[in-house]
Design goal:
- The complex is a heterodimer.
- By secondary structure, chain A is mainly α.
- Helices cover 72% and strands 0% of the residues of chain A.
- Chain A is built from nine helices and no strands.
- Chain A has two domains: 1-96, Rna Polymerase Sigma Factor, Chain: A (Orthogonal Bundle), CATH 1.10.1740; 97-181, Orthogonal Bundle (Arc Repressor Mutant, subunit A).
- Chain B is mainly alpha-helical.
- Among the domains of chain B are: 69-97; 156-218, no CATH class.
- In chain B, 64% of the residues lie in helices and 0% in strands.
- Chain B has twelve helices and no strands.
- The radius of gyration of chain B is 58 Å and the shape is elongated.
- The chains are: A mainly alpha, B mainly alpha.
- Chains A and B meet through α1, α2, α3, α6 and α9 of A and α4, α5 and α6 of B.
Chain lengths: 181, 226
């Protein structure tokens, strides 16, 4: 484990420095985790809810973290599970359409105040939302977070081979969408 | 050897030998060390350098690994780019900076907001129809199992009757002695007036009785006397 993370863990496990260490962990990983969540749920308010819930779970569970992986791998795993849970709840409540090819998130992208349909970067966002959830996760983690397959397999609990295949398919689909739109 | 060299280079100097001309006070060198120590005590040397900056525990031990990881990461970055150029060249050219907007100062205020939230959250997840169905199936199995078990314990009159021997039956009819040890359903039998039964049986011919007994014996268990 990274030395700085190990030290933060030690401080977190002492009552006197617990809060300070927790704040330091949030500040260190908040942006990375925020964008990981935001790319899945799209809407900022939803991402904020998911992210806060995620860090509250971290507060409750960090004492029991076994350190068998990097701290950020563990954080990513919690954030990913929170995203999937949130999206599942959205579908059950009917907030997200099950029949919509873009999972209803394409409309949320178009609703962003900076949306520009002519820009390739926005087309990329729409293309990514076309992907199934798991494939979207794999694509985001590799394309944006540049995560090695070995780490990704710990985050998503999937074999490296399956992840490579998933990423290849996802990248081709995304490129195809951009070319055709 | 030096003298030989000197005789070669400057013979007149060699004649004088290597004698010291300067004088040194008696016992000078014997006292020298203690003299120096005494002076040090009077004017102590500067204190050891103390670093005001704190270094994280294990920093230097972990430094080589951290640097190697960064070197590895930059290699990883190139590998990811190469992979993308092979699969989807168009994506490799795009700017990967986030395009979705984030409220101003969001990250600055995030950690205080999280700290203010309650530490424990109770997540209530409504049961899905699958979970309801599973609960219903389990309940059904338990109830059905209970009913089957209860029925299996009830007294089966037909079964017990088939197990009776003809002698036992005749004895019962004649004497009123019950051949069944653990008959539960005595309420039904006690309602029957045995005198009337005997009267009815006396009205039946022997041939009819034998026919009945034979038919009953065909369906009886091997343990019966018939």
């Amino acid at each position: 484990m990274l030395t700085e993370d190990r030290e933060l863990l030690l401080e977190f496990r002492q009552a006197a420095t617990k809060e300070r260490a927790f704040t330091a962990i949030i500040k260190k990983y908040q942006e990375k985790l925020y964008w990981h969540v935001r790319r899945m749920v799209v809407d900022h308010d939803d991402a904020n809810d998911v992210l806060q819930n995620m860090f509250i779970k971290v507060w409750n569970a960090l004492d029991h973290f076994r350190e068998d992986s990097q701290l950020y791998t563990w954080l990513y795993r919690i954030a990913t599970n929170e995203c999937l849970t949130f999206l599942e709840q959205q579908k059950k409540r009917g907030t997200l359409s099950l029949t919509d090819d873009e999972n209803g998130l394409g409309n949320k992208i178009r609703a962003d105040e900076g949306f520009d349909a002519n820009r390739l970067e926005w087309k990329l966002q729409l293309a990514i939302q076309q992907l199934p959830e798991k494939q979207r996760l794999v694509f985001n983690l590799r394309y944006y977070d540049e995560m090695p397959y070995e780490e990704m397999s710990r985050v998503l609990d999937t074999s490296e081979g399956a992840l490579k295949a998933s990423y290849h398919h996802a990248a081709k689909k995304v490129e195809e969408f951009i070319k055709n739109n | 050897m030096i003298l030989n060299e000197l005789e070669t280079v400057a013979p007149s100097l060699a004649l004088n030998g290597l004698a010291q001309v300067y004088t040194v006070p008696a016992g000078y060198f014997d006292q020298f060390a203690s003299t120096v120590l005494a002076r040090l005590e009077q004017n102590p040397a500067l204190p050891a350098v103390s670093h005001p900056f704190r270094v994280p525990v294990g920093y230097f031990e972990g430094l080589p690994a951290s640097i190697l990881q960064r070197i590895g990461h930059s290699g990883q970055k190139n590998e990811i780019l190469a992979e993308l150029e092979e699969i989807a060249p168009l994506l490799a050219t795009l700017n990967r900076k986030p395009v979705l907007t984030v409220p101003r100062d969001y990250f600055e205020q995030l950690s205080p907001v999280i700290k203010k939230r309650p530490a424990k959250i109770l997540a209530f997840r409504p049961l899905t129809w699958v979970q309801y169905a599973a609960a219903a199936v389990i309940a059904g199995i338990l109830v059905t199992g209970g009913i089957v078990y209860t029925n299996s314990q009830r007294f089966n009159f037909s079964r017990e009757l088939n197990n009776l021997s003809d002698d036992a039956m005749i004895s019962y009819i004649s004497n009123g002695t019950s051949p069944v040890a653990n008959i539960d359903d005595t309420e039904t039998l006690s309602d029957i007036d045995m005198t009337n039964v005997q009267d009815h049986l006396e009205s039946i011919s022997d041939d009819e009785l034998k026919t009945y007994l034979k038919q009953a014996g065909d369906g009886a268990s091997p343990s019966s006397g018939g």
